[in-house]
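Hey,

Quick one before I head out. I ran the complex with NAP overnight. Inputs first:
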Amino acid sequence: MTKTAIVTGGSRGIGRATAIEFSKMGMNVAIIYCGNQAKAEETVAACKENGVDAIAIKCDVKNKADVEVAVENVRETFGSVDVLVNNAGITKDGLLLRMSEEDFDAVIDTNLKGCFLMSKACSAIMMKQRSGKIINIASIVGIQGNAGQANYAASKAGIIGFTKSLAKELGSRGITVNAVAPGFVETDMTDVLSDKVKEALMNLIPLKRTAKPEDIAGTIGFLASEKADYITGQVLTVDGGMCM
Ligand code: NAP
């Protein structure tokens, strides 16, 4: 039977590359986006070119009602939820003393609470199926920390603890839960960085190149495949050797 994957933040960047990777693997894909419908439809079209079915669903991952409706929509449309990639994420950088409560909450709510709400809704379906794969997109910043990103680092470190806890909780139901921690990936999120910051980051990468979204999507595809059936609770860094 054709498997179904949900990719949050599938309209752009790493999420888009992941949705396309899944379509190449023969999975139907539900792309969750927040505001960028045109970009989400582009991803849908790219997935369909690979001969699978794909839909775009507008859903704010930090909103419980939105999440429940979206996941039910996917189950009704495709009949199962086999893979969930919690990829939607934002940054609102600033040094601690200048960081507003709103910016702290926005990042934690989107990156961490969104991951919680999506995992809760999907795991209910996966538990009944007695199978499923949840892949959470963390960051090496969640392992190393980063000045100016206390909110983002906390959300990503939270995702790592959340991943390991779910792996222990859901393992007996045939569900694996892993995290991928990318380094510096060329997307809209990093496009806003100054050339000076980009150069400083580049100097920290042993492979001497930044990642393309496809570099991360390949690892996510592996974790979503049967080849990774015996891997759970792990954090795979995909960062050109930046964090070791
Ligand atoms: P991106 O290009 O900025 O795309 C972000 C995606 O998240 C978009 O599809 C956006 O949807 C979606 N999104 C944002 N808020 C949402 C919400 N409340 N509900 C639903 N969707 C929402 O980001 P990216 O660089 O691909 O990053 C993807 C993930 O990788 C993030 O979790 C990020 O923290 C992580 N990561 C990125 C890097 C990097 O160097 N780029 C490094 C480490 C980790 P719309 O298009 O509708 O706005």
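The mean pLDDT is 98.

Talk tomorrow,
K.
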